[in-house]
Amino acid sequence: MGIHKRKHGNVTSLIFSHIMNNLKAYLSVILVFFIGIVLGVIVINNSNSEQILQINDYINNFISDLREYGSIDKSTLLAETFFNNLYLILALWFVGSTVIGIPIVYGIIAYKGFCLSYTISSSIITLGTWNGTIFSLASMFLQNIIYIPCMLALAVSGIRLYKSIIKDKRRENIKFEIIRHIMFSALIGAIMLLGTLVETYISTNLIMSFVKIL
Q1: What does the alpha-carbon distance between residue 10 and residue 65 come to, in Å, rounded to a whole number?
Q2: Predicted pLDDT of residue 22
Q3: Domains of the chain: which residue ranges?
Q4: Could you give the 3-state DSSP secondary structure of residue 139?
Q5: Which CA distances in Å does 58 have to 51, 64, 78, 84, 165?
Q6: Cα 60 from Cα 56, distance rounded (Å)
Q7: How far is Cα 159 from Cα 63, in angstroms, rounded to an integer?
């Protein structure tokens, strides 16, 4: 029991130390993420009636299909979610490994915030505040408490790589920092795989439960 507590404490200390050592980078990517969220809300609030109608039709048709078929194809969803996350990880890793890629990293973070906000706002507009919020929580909350920190951490790792190479352009340092970035990205990828499983096997059940009582 004591060993388990020490290990848990060590992991917590490592995470806290990592965040504090890269605090400015984390604050910058969090700010960009929230800018994306705000933009998503603004776009929805300024959508015309035809766009709102299309959004309503899409969500209502999605819910109708769930009611009709009574289930979600988990194997297909697992594959789609896995590859979508893999593409995201590779994109953030690749552009974060290049000197000119940092603006693209920020762009990806802003886009993910925009998509999240746009989806939640669309659900609320279509289903109402209460049902829309519950639907959003059921369908997106659990996996995104894993995805979002991982995504931000990947972005920060790329920023840290860029800053380290700019400060010290020795070949040995560049090689070390790239290897560190690769290993960190692989670790984040493994954690995001857990989010994929949560989305496929837990969130889908929550969505189906919500649809039945809607």
Answers
A1: 47
A2: 86
A3: 25-213
A4: helix
A5: 11, 10, 22, 21, 46
A6: 6
A7: 40
